[in-house]
Every structure is written in C-alpha cells, then in structure tokens.
Amino acid sequence: MDTQVGIVGAGPAGLLLAHLLGREGIDCVVLEARSREYVEHRVRAGVLEQGTVDVLTETGVADRLHREGMVHRGIQLRFGGEGHRIALSDLAGGRAITVYGQQEVVKDLIAARLDAGGPLEFEAGATEIDPDGGVIRYGDGSDELRCTIVAGCDGFHGVARAAVPADALTVYEREYPFAWLGILARAAPSSEELIYTHHERGFALHSMRSPEVTRNYLQVAPGEDIEAWPDERIWEELQTRMALADGSFALNEGEVFEKGIAPMRSFVAEPMRHGRLVLAGDAAHIVPATGAKGLNLAVADVRVLARALAACFAHGDESGLGTYSERCLRRVWRVQHFSWWMTAMMHRLTGDPFEARLQQSQLDYVVRSRAAATTLAENYVGLELEDV
Ligand code: FAD
Ligand code: DHB
After folding, report:
1. How far apart are the first and last CA of the chain?
2. Can you tell me the distance from the alpha carbon of 189 to that of 141, in angstroms, rounded to the nearest whole number?
3. Ligand 1, atom 29: nearest CA belongs to which residue?
4. How far apart are the CA of 262 and the centre of ligand 1, in A?
5. Predicted confidence (pLDDT) per residue in 344-388, tens digit
6. CA distances, 144 to each of 55, 137, 212 (Å)
C-alpha cells in the first residue's frame, strides 16, 4: 500500500480527518481537485457548534478561531414585525455557537497540515475509485494511490459516492421549492446576534463574519438568475423583510463583495461505508442551510471516523469501522429532521393558507414555550455525540 488512508477532498471533512489521523501517527494522503487559492476562498457556512469548536481547540488548530471568532449565546427569531430572542446558552446547558467562516477553518487546517509536513496535493482530482481494492486514480488518470482505506470527503458532486454500486446504496432526497441568495458586505453587523426572519415575502437571515463584515441571505426562487438581483434590489428586499413594526430596525448597508445562490436540498445516502471506502460529510448527506448544520455534521462524521481508524490501525480492532455508518446516521437523521423543521418553519412555503396558519402557530409556540425553545436551542448548539 502507498498509504494507510487516501483522503479524497480538502474541504472541512477531508482536512480535519487528515489532521486527526496525523495526530494518531496514521499515514494519509489528501487529494484535492481544486487549487489552494480556490478552496481557501470558497464562501459557505459560518456557524460552528460547540462540539466543532471543542475538537478544533483540543487538537491545537483554534488559536485564530478564538481570536477572531464571535461567540453567540442567543439568536433572534423575527416574524410579524417583532423579534423574539431564543436564549441558546440558558436553554442548552451553557453551550454556545461561534461565528467563524468555513473558509477560515479551511485555511487554518491547510496551514496545520502543511506545517506538519503531511502530503496534501492540490489540483489532483480523483477520477476513479475502486472501493474493493482501495485504489484511487487521480490527476490525468495515470496516477494511482493504493490505500488500506479510502475516505470519500469530496462533497456532494464528488466521485466517491458514485463509486459505490447503485444496488448497494439507498438514497433519500428532497428538493425545496426555493434557494438562498447569500451576500458578504462591508457593513457593521446591525445586531449582536443572528436574526432569522419569517416574512410573507420570504425568509431572510442576518449574520456576520467580523465587526466590519456582514453576511445576509434571502429566500429566492430556485434557479433564480443572480443577474436579476442587483445590489439595490437585494438591500431593498432585506430591509422590507427584516423591518420591525415599530420602525426601530434598519439594516446597515455597504459594498457587496461576494454574491451567490445556493440550492436547498435534503439528501442521505446509506450506508456510509462500502468495502474499503468510507464516505464523510457532504459526500454522504446534505441538509438545507437553515439550521447551519452542514459543516458541523461533516465534523461530527470525521470525529467518529478518526476514532474508528485509530483503533483499526493501532490494534487491528475493526469494530468501530463496522459501526461507523450506523453511528453517524443516527446523528445525520437527527440533524436532517432539525434542518427540515427549521426550513419549513422559517420560509414562505406554497402560499396555501392552511399551511401558513400552521406555520404561524409553530412560530408562536417556539417563542412562548420554554420546552419548544429548548428543543430548538439544544439542536442548534449541537447535541453531544452520546445524546443522539
Ligand atoms: P466540501 O466542503 O464540499 O469539500 C469537498 C472537497 O472535495 C472540495 O474541496 C472539492 O473541491 C473536493 N472535490 C470534489 N470532487 C473531487 C474529486 N473528484 N477529487 C478530489 N477532490 C474533490 N452550510 C451551512 O451550514 N450554512 C451555509 O450557509 C452553507 N452554505 C453553503 C453554500 C454552498 C454553495 C454549498 C455547496 C454548501 C453550503 N453549506 C452551508 C454546506 C457546508 O458548506 C458543507 O456542508 C460543508 O462544506 C461540508 O464539508 P465537506 O468537507 O463534506 O465538503
Ligand atoms: C450562516 C449560515 C447559515 O446557514 C445559518 O443558518 C446561519 C448563519 C452564515 O453563513 O453565517
């Protein structure tokens, strides 16, 4: 074998796996299709669960995260022109979330990997994987990496999941009749905490990256053309949806320097292991972004996988690998449900009046009942691995 673990993809899942395995003295090679510049600047998620911050901290890659990340102990739900605070930390045993961009986590993990001298090859996309033989073909197709285990961490559009024979995989999927338009703008945050807004014109979310940069999202039609959304239209729509009835809220505006539209999808492929191939992160599952869970779920998979591989390579104990899929899927489905529930509660759905009244009732209940708010809070900050 050329290496013990061949990791396909240098997103959060692949990079964290390489970092955790490196600390256990396990040999691995990371192959990434894109350039370093590209993966370090790909703008995506921004909310880290307590457990995600903990694993990065315990393994020594969180110095900048603790300097620059913003710890939040609550979020606001806004609907009917009024804001309601969900006190995350009070409701969820003191736990909190940290707002820190996914691409910053990626930069920190790449730096750690390169400092440790671990192999990480950019512009070396896998073209074919043999899940039984543990072979990855990559680059122009003539390069080959032979591995004891192949970790498919190559995201939703990668090649790893496709390498599993179709009759060995069960897929569960749902597409939503809306997408998110996201922007980054040079503007100070307009609130200390994130604001999730339900409005008859659609969902809006106010988030941030630093005291100078905000991240805002708008529900738009699926397949919407970004050209149809000049900056003025985006700001006007955000202001309309996020307004408070008493006129006391105005969103700070500024230069928009990043703009994109992401589809909303729920997807799970089971099982997450076939032969020598294991899947982790978006390669195995996707959640709609409303619960801020995609990145955190990728991290949770990798924590379970790294432990299983450590036992396997240290003393030939394959029991953890045997239960990897089952253990991960319990959390995956809990998070699928939470993300679907948040999505259904916060967005403009079909316009059907019965559905709209149910949605209104659900929103009222979540902000009035401590039990309902606790359900939201404990899922949002992230359930501990053992609790799922
Ligand atoms: P990825 O981050 O997708 O990493 C996979 C890596 O594999 C990539 O670097 C890719 O270039 C590489 N790769 C692909 N094919 C190959 C190949 N053949 N060979 C080698 N390498 C390959 N989550 C949220 O919680 N909130 C958000 O706002 C949010 N926004 C998102 C916006 C977009 C456009 C997308 C796509 C996702 C978003 N997510 C969001 C989800 C979150 O970013 C993902 O869940 C997270 O990136 C998962 O990490 P990962 O490492 O599993 O996959
Ligand atoms: C962000 C993204 C999310 O999906 C979310 O639910 C909250 C915040 C963000 O990018 O900041």
Report:
1. 36
2. 47
3. 45
4. 12
5. 999 999 989 999 999 999 999 999 999 999 999 999 999 876 656
6. 32, 5, 46
Q: Give the chain's mean pLDDT.
A: 97
Burial (CB < 10 A; 0-12, 13-18, 19+), residue 151, is buried
Rounded CA-CA distance 39/46 in Å is: 15
Kindly report the backbone phi and psi dihedral angles of residue 254, in degrees, each rounded to the nearest multiple of 5, phi listed first.
Answer: -170, -175
Nearest to 185 by CA among 258, 243, 99: 258
Separation of 140 CA from ligand 2 center, angstroms?
36
Looking at the chain, list the stretches that DSSP marks H as alpha helix, in order from N- to C-terminal side. Answer: 12-23, 36-40, 50-58, 63-68, 88-91, 102-115, 231-242, 294-315, 319-346, 353-368, 370-381
Res. 117: pLDDT tops 90: yes
Q: Ligand 2 pocket: which residues have CB below 6 Å?
A: 45-47, 194, 205, 207, 215, 289-290, 292
Question: How far does the centroid of ligand 2 lie from the alpha carbon of residue 72, in Å?
Answer: 13
- Average pLDDT value for residue range 17-41: 97
| Residue 245 CA neighbour count, 13 Å, CB half | 7
Give the helix, strand, coil percentages of the chain, each rounded to 5. Answer: 40, 30, 30
Residue type, 221: A
Ligand number nearest to the C-alpha of 69: 2
